[in-house]
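Worked example 2:
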Amino acid sequence: MDAGVRRVMGLISEINVRFVVPVYQRPYSWGEEQCLQLWDDILHCGRSREETHFTGSIVTMQDGSASPAGVAALALIDGQQRITTIALLLVALARYASAHPDEQLPYSRDEVMLGGYLTNPFRSGEDHYKLTLSKGDRATFRSIVDNLEDPSRPVDPTSKRILQNLSLFEQRLDALSNVASVWVGLRRLEVVAVSLTQGRDRAQLIFESMNSTGKDLGAADLIRNFVLMKYPLDRQAEAYRTYWKPLEDALLPLGEDDALDDFVRCFMQMAYAPEPLGQADLYQTFKRYVAEGGFDRNDRMGFLCLRLKDFAQYYVATVTGELAQPLVEASAADAPAFREVTARLAGIAELGVPQARPLELELLRSCHRRECTLTQLATMLGTLESYLLRRAVCDCEGSAQTQFLLRLVAKLQAVRNAGEKYYDAYLALFLVEEGTPRRLPTDDEFSRALQSRDCFGFSRSFYLLTRLNGHRAAASAQAGEKDAVPTGDVPTREGWSVEHVMPVGALADDAWRAALGPNPELAYERLENTLGNLVLTPYAYDLQDCGFDQKLERLRQDADGVPERIALSSDVLDQQAWGPEQIEARGARLAREALAIWPMPTVDAATLESYRPTARAASLRQTTWQDLFDSGVVQMDDTLVSASPMYPGRATVTSTGKIMLANGQMFTDPTDAYERFLGTIGANPTGLNGWTHWRLGDGGPLLDDLR
């Protein structure tokens, strides 16, 4: 590593070098605030008597190679934002000089163009451009330089940030009385220039230390750099396209800047459950996961990226409630189950409980690994939806729920490793929490809360009523499909709202007071916001002086020729009067329907008993791969043979108990080894359970049988 203080203009104008922003770097992101801070520093330096002004650091990486024309490409490890902004200011200065030929300036357009600041003037192709940006910024910046050389060439409009900042500098120069001070200030800027050599210097550690405050780079930026810096410079672009970009593309439907951060946090929570993870821990946790999984050895980083891409698709489904494609190869008979899975994912997403996403990832993975069927997955997701809604309706304590969800992920992973029945275990683990703060509220508790609580002010009231509405609509149209979880023609949040039947101004109306009975104030307070008095409507109205007949007329108008739109109101339209008796009866009916939509899970008594904490504590601990090796059941030099005739292959047990594939990669878990084995032969890593797909020797027992 070579480091020293350099003038910025001297650094960027060196002959026969060009600066390349690596593909793993985030796009150019400086906004007006950062640009104006640099502008102020340059002006202060140009106007003062100080010789220089220090402005941070520039870190480059070189691999010792050069193009046929002799131009060396230096990877910009740190400082791309500053270098790019200075380049934009140089373009603005050159344009200013062209537009003001009679003004006395200490520089000229030709000096900027031929001085090596923006181009290598006597080189062509890639070597011609002094700065090569990444992703969507490259074409726009390059076109600006081309336009400066030949004004007839068009400017690419792709990168709005590049064009906005260039325009900002042009406006500032036009408003400046002495442009010379900008040129003088630029020539006085100094940086610490750090030059690294690939293969000798640990670029990632230097990069981390220079960005340790977390203000410049988020966890996702650090993770992306960490992954792609594992590859040589000449392979980074290919690694980005092959491994990292598919992960970014998988998250595109979310359209959020922090989607990658949120996804990686969710994945790490699943991987390390029940250990809670904070934001500050994310990058270090990822590095720990890489080291413990051996992904930083034997070129396995690409395998990790492909795994992350699969889970990113699951994550998008948990956020959007839309599953793009079945998790397993499904037949036409599986279509209803797949629709039900999608409906349950949508319901959980609507409930808005991000703490449930690690568990959803675990469940989706279990189906991908064929540890459960699509029908079972739909039931498991339905149980999770029931758990979240029932606890919300019953106002159960939130922190206990978060702890339970993470503990459940860990318990399910233990169930998988122990070779137990995944589906039965999942349902039982909800039921054995009865009587604890983590409980799934019973039918009685859920029903009572639905009928008595304030449902109008309930944060999930719209979700609750639309699901009830859809269930009623579908039940009318498809009475024979008992197992369906239909949505019907469900109203959406756009234009629909929750409304009272008996209005909020009922006590001011004599007819309503009479309908409320001998103690109207008490009845009004008890029933006004309960479930039985609420409907859905496309009109934002609450006619406080409106009688029941007028309410009925408005509800009929809501149907607008499509009765299923207001299926929830059907039993209101059947009434001749509306008071405590009708409200309470309707509340009881809706509560019974809610029990059908969000049911309690059922398992046999023996299974339930086996998962009670006392029974589990008394049982033998799970048998691991290491147990098989330590006990001598499998030994050094034993051969593991793929049990699938479609995927023939072998692995060897090493002296330390590792599973070594033919390519030399080693694993401590049969499933991880089998997944990687599939990848090495060009098969799709379908998540098959390695315990049931490796045999001990030709024709020998499955590892699962040995366990």
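The CA atoms of residues 474 and 488 lie 5 Å apart. The longest helix spans residues 80-99.
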